Amino acid sequence: MQTSKPRIVIVATGGTIAGSADSTTAAGYQSGGVAVDVLIDAVPQMKKFGDVRGVQVSSLGSQDMNDELWVTLATEVNRLLAAADVDGVAITHGTDTMEETAYFLNLVVKSDKPVVLTGSMRPSTSLGADGPLNIYNAVGVASDPRAKGRGVLVVANDDIHDARAMTKRHTSDVQTFVSPEVGLVGVCLFDDREFMRSPAHAHTTATPFTVVTGQALPRVDVIYAHAGMCPDVIDGAVANGAKGLIIAGVGGGNMTTPALDAVKRAIGKGVVVVRSTRVGEGMVRRNIEVDDDTVGTVASKELNPAKARVLLKLALTQTSDRKRVQDFFDTY
User: Fold this and answer.
1) Chain center to CA of 62
2) Quick one: angle between helices 98-108 and 67-81, nearest 10?
3) Secondary structure class of 30 (helix, strand, coil)
4) How far apart are CA 247 and CA 305, in angstroms?
5) What is the C-alpha to C-alpha distance for residues 118 and 128, in angstroms, rounded to an integer?
6) What distance in Å separates the CA atoms of residue 324 and residue 326, rounded to the nearest whole number?
7) CA 332 to chain centre
8) Domain total in the chain
9) Same domain assignment for residues 191 and 226
10) Which of 3, 13, 16, 204 is an active site residue?
11) Do 312 and 278 reside in the same domain of the chain?
12) 16 in active site
């Protein structure tokens, strides 16, 4: 029987939000040590939004997030969202790789029900811990019917971001997440939420990407460009089995001439190479810094290197045709 309140499942993966330290002012801490039921009990106020229960998928710092856990998490989220007694999902996650996990889910979740990630910059035992209010807001957004159909969202520090746009920009500030190119989806102020836009790119049910339990994803490496960049790091990645490469280029996706020659060699061996940028804002467009049509490279558009890697891994499960891969980067 359906209840009057939305039914929200908190899926816990670990991270600082579930971390503990030796004191309330310690900078160091252990990630993922607090179980999901403890997190729920610590914020009883969020139960005003709906009936809340928890599922523990992992208990680790998000620096250790990997393909296997992504597939496991996506499979569990899709299973939950397919159930008639689940109206939305909130996911607690470490901030280090949250943008990658959020974007991965944005591409493989097959439901228009709300999916909201949140985390914290301070452990649960810290003086001024930001986790409790972030969980409160995440559950509030997940229970809000206006969040439906907007793709995967990220809620932190009273802001609502879309998974494609959001990135972590500071190592320690509570206000670490920004959406530099397109801005926020909305904002929270305790029980009040305002939604200002929906993501423009296709997501969730409108993508061709799916994952199944146990699926292995292709290896894609990120290569960081710099002055005097040597080509052997590119050759080495290919020799060690990379099926795709993301070049975190200088400026608009550029690299040294020897590195570009190595990229050409990689493409000649069937490796798909995407040009992104190490710069924090801006777009990598086709045929600007590099003649992509001639070289055979793909332009990442707004996607930073970390997110370009996520999309390329999924794209390679569908095709290695560079024109189709470019279409994916233009669309998703």
Assistant:
1) 11
2) 50
3) strand
4) 7
5) 17
6) 5
7) 13
8) 2
9) no
10) 16
11) yes
12) yes
Residue type, 320: S
Q: Which tokens sit at 174?
A: 């509570």
Report the C-alpha dihedral over residues 76, 79, 80, 81, rounded to 10 degrees.
120
Structural domain that includes position 246:
220-331
How far is it, in rounded angstroms, from Cα 297 to Cα 287? 9
pTM value surpassing 0.90? yes
The residue behind tokens 């990120």 is 222
Residue range 304-323, pLDDT digits in tens: 999 999 999 999 999 999 99
Tokens of 219: 């290896």
Residue type, 13: T
Return the number of other C-beta atoms located less than 10 Å from residue 124's C-beta.
Answer: 22
Long-range Cβ pairs for the range 21-28 (8 Å, 24+):
21/123, 21/125, 21/126, 23/125, 24/125, 24/126, 24/127, 25/126, 25/127, 26/126
Confidence of residue 29 (pLDDT cuts 50, 70, 90): low
Tokens in use for 186?
């909305």
Are residues 195 and 312 part of one domain?
no
Residues 225 and 290 in one domain: yes
- CATH (domain of 98): 3.40.50.1170
- 140 CB burial (10 A radius; 0-12, 13-18, 19+): buried
Cβ–Cβ contacts within 10 Å for residue 216, how many? Answer: 9
Averaged over 163-191, what is the pLDDT? 96
Do residue 104 and residue 71 come from a single domain? Answer: yes
- Other CB atoms within a 10 A radius of the CB of residue 233 amount to 15
